[in-house]
């Protein structure tokens, strides 16, 4: 079953606050296209309450996620029919990342694992090595499945068609018995070696 994700992207300003505002404008546009122009976005941190946590949508039956890759902001929404949803994105070519030894396990694995960890709600506070990823046979509408070894929670995932030169993965957790953590918005962490 496909993930049913709507994705938008555009070049974003360099400073953190401007990038966040820009990404949220993309989210609001996606939600308006789905008939929810008055949806409210918030992102309280589950630990401290400050506005740098998972993106949450009120007044619309949708989930939202953002990611940043180089100078691009990406925003995604999907129907709120899953326990969690997140995206991650990284530039395919990145001199800093390569100079630091590249992404552990390769870039595709890194982007998939980070999407899962963001959907889990803990992001990179959890070791990416705890994510076990398996490719799914072609034609299923999915690219891969994953599970967290420390909890056994299962995820479905797919690569999304994003901007040229940027790898984008989405992860969805549909297990209603799993803890209800919301998708994590990017908080400025730039990935391996940066």
- What is the straight-line distance between the termini? 35 Å
Number of helices: 3
What is the H/E string?
EHEEEEEHHEEEE
* Average of pLDDT: 86
Biggest beta sheet attributes: 5 strands, antiparallel
- Integer-rounded radius of gyration: 15 Å
Q: Percent of residues in beta strands?
A: 25-35%
Structure class: alpha+beta
E-strand count: 10
Question: What labels describe this entry?
Answer:
five-stranded antiparallel sheet, disordered C terminus, three-stranded antiparallel sheet, 194 residues, alpha+beta
What does this structure look like?
This protein is α+β, with helices and mostly antiparallel strands. It has one domain. It is built from three helices and ten strands. It has helices at residues 16-33, 95-99, 107-120, and strands at 6-11, 40-42, 56-58, 62-69, 72-79, 84-91, 131-135, 144-148, 154-160, 166-173. A five-stranded antiparallel beta sheet has the order 6-10-9-8-7, with helices on one face. It has a three-stranded antiparallel beta sheet with strand order 1-5-4, covered by helices on one side. A hairpin with a 5-residue loop joins strand 9 (154-160) and strand 10. The longest helix has 18 residues, at 16-33. The chain is globular. The N and C termini lie far apart (35 Å).
């Amino acid at each position: 079953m496909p993930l049913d994700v709507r994705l938008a992207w555009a070049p974003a300003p360099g400073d953190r606050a401007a990038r966040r505002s820009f990404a949220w404008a993309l989210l609001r546009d996606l939600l308006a296209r789905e008939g929810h122009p008055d949806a409210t976005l918030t992102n309280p941190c589950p630990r401290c309450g400050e506005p740098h946590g998972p993106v949450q949508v009120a007044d619309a039956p949708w989930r939202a996620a953002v990611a940043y890759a180089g100078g691009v902001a990406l925003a995604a929404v999907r129907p709120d029919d899953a326990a969690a949803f997140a995206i991650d994105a990284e530039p395919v070519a990145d001199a800093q990342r390569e100079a630091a030894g590249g992404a552990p396990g390769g870039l595709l694995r890194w982007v998939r694992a980070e999407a899962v960890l963001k959907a889990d709600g803990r992001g990179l506070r959890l070791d990416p090595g705890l994510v076990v990823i398996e490719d799914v046979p072609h034609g299923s509408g999915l690219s891969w499945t994953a599970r967290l070894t420390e909890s056994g929670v299962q995820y479905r995932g797919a690569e999304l068609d994003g901007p040229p030169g940027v790898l984008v993965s989405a992860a969805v957790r549909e297990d209603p018995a799993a803890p209800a953590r919301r998708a994590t918005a990017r908080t400025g962490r730039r990935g391996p070696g940066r």
